[in-house]
Amino acid sequence: MTLGEIKDIHEKVFNLACEKKHNVFIWSIDKYLLETEQMMQELGYTLHARMIWDKENGIAPAFTVRFSHEYLLWFYKKGNMLMPARDQRGVWTTVFREQSTMHSRKPVVARMMLEKMFPGSEKLELFARQQAEGWDCWGNEI
Length: 142
Hints:
- By secondary structure, the chain is of the alpha/beta class.
- It is built from 3 helices and 6 strands.
């Protein structure tokens, strides 16, 4: 999909599903980091944090350096941020380590972090590759 198509999907979903306090967590890689942040800014969101997943492995395109991380970006709308549960504030760091397993499969620790930080909140995963208990999952692979 083009970035424009991805932006259109996000805009429609955000307009339908995000009337109350909420956050958006979106995965990106170096190649698309700036474009992802710009897209979310155009949709009215502010960047709160860049979290880094250290995959402990990765690919080495063109036999140069090994790309071994991805970003999990946390966005919110001003005045509308959903705050983490009190007992979870300051618990998580911006770097988490978990070896990657399958292509595009995200780390278990990221989902666990979000579930602990926002218990009882409705959760929606766009472009999901598998079902997850307690989440509404949307994607062409499920």
